[in-house]
């Protein structure tokens, strides 16, 4: 059933992300979401990242695992401001992510997934994961 609803669920998520971040388009929101996902993913070992991916709806799961360089070692979680700068640096000229990008994507995600399941998975991940997805 989740695959039958995938497009509608993705559209709803993107509209939530766009509106929460006060962006003008869902294209802008897409870049922000992709950057936030990649900033989170690069801080996880593969097995932990796959645990997180299982909580995501199908299209978001695909975005989360796309273009993944499995050879890169996991980076440590950093201060929110530093991780936000990473998000904003993603795709440079095509990125208008606000300073609240991580929090905005977290809020949109929490509106569109089973929050209890998300919190259970985050609790199993390395220190910093829970705070990363705090809305």
Quick structural summary:
This protein has 135 residues and is an all-alpha fold.
Describe this structure as you would to a colleague:
The chain is built from 8 helices and no strands. The model has no long low-confidence stretch (mean pLDDT 95). It has 135 residues and is mostly helical.
Question: With helices defined by DSSP (H or I, 4 residues minimum), what is the helix count?
Answer: 8
Strand content: under 5%
Low-confidence stretches: none
Query: What is the CATH homology-level superfamily?
Result: Uncharacterized conserved protein DUF2267
Please give the share of residues in helix: 55-70%
What's the order of the H and E elements?
A: HHHHHHHH
CATH class category name: Mainly Alpha
Distance linking N and C termini? 28 Å
Structural class, from secondary structure content? mainly alpha
Shape: globular
In the CATH hierarchy, the architecture is Orthogonal Bundle
The overall pLDDT, averaged over residues, is 95
Q: Provide the gyration radius in Å.
A: 14 Å
Domain count: the total is: 1
How many individual β-strands? 0
Q: Characterize the largest beta sheet: strand count, sense, and whether it forms a barrel.
A: none
- According to CATH, the fold-level topology is Globin-like
InterPro entries: DUF2267 (IPR018727), DUF2267_sf (IPR038282)
Organism: Sinorhizobium medicae
Protein name: DUF2267 domain-containing protein
